[in-house]
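Q: Convert this sequence to C-alpha cells.
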Amino acid sequence: MQFFAPTRVYLEKDCVANHKNELLSYGSRAFIITGKHSSKANGSLDDVLSILDEASVPYLIYNDIEENPSVETVTKAAGIGKTFRRISSSASAAVPRWTPPRPSPCSWPIHRRTPDASTNPKS
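A:
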C-alpha cells in the first residue's frame, strides 16, 4: 500500500495570511491537530484561526498530541474528528462551542466555531 501526501512548506513573513486562499480551498471545515504548546506559543495557531474566523469556517482544535503519537492517541483523535464531522455537518448556527462526547485531558479547551448559515450557505 502506498499513500501520496504532498507537502508545501512556506518560509516567509505572514505566510498564513499570504496563502489564505490556498488554505481555505482545502474544504468547508477544519480539524486542527496540534501539540500542547508550540503552535500557540509561536503564534501560528492564532494566524490560522484568524483566517478561519474571517472566512466563517467551522473548526475544532485537538491539542492532546504527544511527540511520536501512540496508536491510542491517533485513534482517540480520529474518533473526535469523526464526531466533529457528523456534528458540524448538521449543527445549527446557534451552537457557538462544541465539546467532545467524553472529557478531554487537553491543557486548554477544544474550540469550535460554527458560521452563521446566512453568511456561509455551503456549511
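The beta strands are 30-33, 59-62, 112-113.
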